[in-house]
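Researcher: Before we compare anything, I want clean individual predictions. No alignment, no superposition, just each chain on its own. First chain goes here; please echo the sequence and then give the structure tokens.
Model: Echoing the first chain and its structure:
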Amino acid sequence: MQNELQTDVPCVRCFYNLRGLPSDGACPECGNPIGPSLDPSRLVFADPRWLRDVTRAVELLYRALPALALVLVLLPVAFWPYLWTGQGAGVVIFRALFSIALVLGALMALVGCLRMTAREPAASVAAAPEVELWLARVGTIAAGAATVGMILLARFGIRLPTEQSSLVLALIFVFMGIAAIGLLGRLRRLAVRLPDPVLARGLRRDAVIIGGAGAVIAVMSHVPLPTGGRLAGLLPVAAVILLGGVWDYIRRFRRAQRRLAPSPVSADEGRQPAQ
């Protein structure tokens, strides 16, 4: 019989805490051998500081994305009488609040993305490069910079022509689609290490669909029609697909992580698989 487990290790099948059990035994709850639960690649055995940062990034995005979407929906509803007429101090107030919400949302998304895509200290140097890491970072930074740039130009009284602003908006959503693919790809790698194969398979299947569909629909909304107009109504649909799709998987990953790889209580408390 090998040594008893000295740390909290959830069973990979039923999430039962295996602490105090022999490493060569079986889970008393489901009968699954304890060996697979001690796989050193599991997220629960990752560097504690890095795991804590990833957990905080997940929490930030989990709370920030729906809050941003809610603000962007409620503001136009609250100021609808002023927007309908296009006159009054309410229009100025709306534009200021809307700009602040967009800037804060871009900053929170950037912080969450950078923390979630931080390289793991214990990762092997010979490991394959994570393409999704760079997709997430480049997409988020580019979308945030373009959004903040348009807002700052407007604050200084510089308004882009309709065609140029339409192109910039389309590019912002394309970058958001790229960021969504990168973030969901990153979540898939983490889900494999929980391990949660069902969640990982869903992420593999839906990452490109969510990011690609949102970007394509957003671009279509800015393509001029033969009548001279545009399908601007598609823009909220693209936003819902991108923000809602990413948030739903972050919610599911967050729930799975709480069962299979909770974040360390403190930065000094490391977790290593039993020998």
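Researcher: Okay. Second chain, same rules.
Model: Second chain and its structure:
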Amino acid sequence: MEYTNAVIETLLLSFQPVMGKDFAKYRNHVYRVFLNCGLIDPDHQHQEKYAVVAVFHDIGIWTDHTIDYLDPSIAQLNQYLTATGRQEWMEECSEMIQWHHKTSRYNGPYAQTVETFRKADWIDVSLGLITYGVDKQTISANRRMLPNRSFHWFLVRKIVRNLFRHPLNPLPMFRR
């Protein structure tokens, strides 16, 4: 766990300049999603992949200044995986980002990790209303340890702003 926390922290700090005042709220979201992955899939085999994907899954919001952030987030992820010699993770990790907004079960390639990550993000985005069988007290404890810091209001503001700019495409990240 210490190793994966160090991976998360190092990666997040590399994006801190571009995130500015949003850094702490995204940091806590990343850690909550990562912890949720461990609650859903306690086998440590995929822990580092979950850590890396947790950092990159929404990062395009800041790197590309867009609410249509899936492809930019995947591009940032693949750049990192190439630089660190982990090209063999590209397809699986890209799928985790590509499908993390899917509202129904994912059944494609890498179903275990993609579905784990999808559920982990939905647990956090739903403020723990959706649990997928994960203990509600544990989810609440993680939320107390890693407070929201207005992350959800940040997302709502971005979505509303996009609604006014692109009324026919208010939620581009859900188009898949």
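Researcher: What stands out in the second chain?
Model: The CA atoms of residues 114 and 130 lie 17 Å apart. Additionally, The radius of gyration is 15 Å.
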